[in-house]
Design brief:
The chain is of the alpha/beta class and about 400 residues long. The chain is about 25% helix and about 30% strand. It binds S-adenosylmethionine. The site of S-adenosylmethionine (SAM) has 22 residues, from helix 6 and helix 10.
Length: about 400
């Protein structure tokens, strides 16, 4: 932060000012992060998606600017109650708003912080308490709701359409708009890089899924791997544990697929380890799936074991005499907080053997195979994806 302020000083006109607005300490989102033990240091947290959140106290903010040669001209602590009547939820949001000018850097004690209550009770004397009717239902609450509008005056739509190109296919994908993504709990409402990369791999190597039954775990709202697979596979079941994600996924399928491809793709809720969900997937294909795919689904340590347990239940039993068609679990991620030893230990606990990986192939043993290398062999993928950024693990069921 100090470095950033020093850079701002260098480029600011003599009479220029810095307009500052950011989350304040005590904001509802901070309360939630605190209760989930995602704290890094004072008022600093890591969100579920790996991005960071900092909450400013008045004192910290003024000192920070003062120490870097700015005077505070005015500063406010803003309060806003966001009410969600359908969920009977009242959310108290707080942010700091200030104007700084280059100066002596000693204004800290001189400007008096004002407090603004925005909303119905503008001159409410006390800081409102957080009222959360149903905390058990907390996972369903999108705390970003209304916030971008209230805090920054942005009235952006909640969703935006991305043009996604995967090798020879292009898709229009509806995702949660950027203004909302960083405070949203669900990671399924956006498109992650590994799905984009894996979809290109599937598009360039149809034999991975051709004529086979495919299950995608944690497919997210975009479902592009499933959409590519559905062109060549006999059956594709695209699943996710999050119902909002599945709603958006269904919209994306309708936007991009037509019969007959659409007919070979089924979407279904599947929360890893949930017995009822697993049983209802079995009713769609009681022989088990030839190929199971998961992109960017191994970033939460606690979810890795249920993921493998679910894959174990739903993969087709191997007949032992198949070569190219041995049932496979293909996981892929771009590096971000992925704990490879936990993945490998869960794999072996649930009877999966790592037979190949990318980019660092296994050192040659009697059981290692050169499967993934062949997907990249003609070099055509290099031009459309940074293949070294993609980590692929290829498992066989023992
Ligand atoms: C980082 S996103 C990746 C989405 C998509 N595969 C992609 O790469 O764009 C992780 C996905 O896994 C889903 N997920 C996380 N935990 C899950 C669980 N326990 N059961 C089922 N789905 C889960 C999330 O809803 C989300 O859609």
């Amino acid at each position: 932060m100090p470095l950033m302020l020093q850079n701002i000083r260098k480029v600011l006109k003599k009479d220029g000012c810095v307009l500052f607005r950011d989350y304040a300490t005590g904001d509802l989102a901070q309360e939630r992060l605190t209760s989930k033990e995602q704290k890094i240091s004072d008022n600093f947290y890591v969100r579920g998606d790996g991005t960071r959140a900092f909450y400013f106290s008045d004192e910290f903010l003024i000192n920070l600017f003062n120490e870097n040669g700015f005077d505070a001209e005015e500063h406010f602590l803003c309060f806003k109650q966001v009410e969600n009547r359908s969920r009977e939820l009242v959310m108290n949001r707080r942010w700091v708003q200030a104007v700084f000018r280059v100066g002596s850097g000693i204004s800290g004690g001189k400007t008096e912080s004002k407090v603004k209550f925005l909303g119905k009770d503008n001159d409410k004397p006390e800081i409102p308490k957080i009222i959360l009717e149903d905390s058990a239902n907390e996972t369903e609450v999108d705390i970003s709701e209304g916030m971008a509008l209230e805090m920054f005056g942005i009235s952006s739509p909640k969703e935006e359409i991305l043009d996604v190109i995967s090798k020879d296919y292009s898709f229009k994908i509806k995702v949660l708009s950027k203004e909302y993504q960083h405070t949203c709990k669900s990671t399924g409402l956006m498109l992650w890089e590994s799905a984009r990369l894996m979809a290109s791999v599937l598009a360039a190597n149809q034999t991975i899924v051709s004529g086979r039954s495919v299950l995608e775990l944690g497919c997210g709202c975009a479902g592009i791997c499933s959409m590519v697979a559905a062109r060549f596979a006999n059956l594709v079941v695209a699943t996710d544990g999050d119902t909002k994600t599945l709603d958006l996924l269904n919209q994306n399928l309708a936007l991009n697929l037509h019969v007959p491809t659409l007919a070979s793709l089924i979407t279904k809720k599947l929360e890893w380890g949930n017995r009822d969900d697993v049983e209802s997937i079995k009713t769609l294909n009681d022989r088990g799936f030839d190929v199971i795919i998961g992109t960017d689904v191994t970033y939460i340590a606690e979810a890795i074991a249920p993921l493998f347990a679910t894959a174990k239940e739903l993969i087709r039993p191997s007949r032992g005499d198949e070569e190219d068609s041995t049932p496979a679990l293909i996981l892929c991620h771009v590096f971000r907080r992925v704990d490879e030893p936990s993945i490998l230990s869960a794999a072996s606990e649930f009877g999966f053997k790592l037979v190949d990986r990318w980019p660092n192939a296994l050192t040659s043993t009697s059981t290692s195979q050169n499967i993934i290398q062949s997907w990249f062999s003609d070099g055509s993928l290099e031009t459309c994806i940074p293949t070294t950024a993609l980590n692929i693990q290829y498992f066989h069921k023992l």
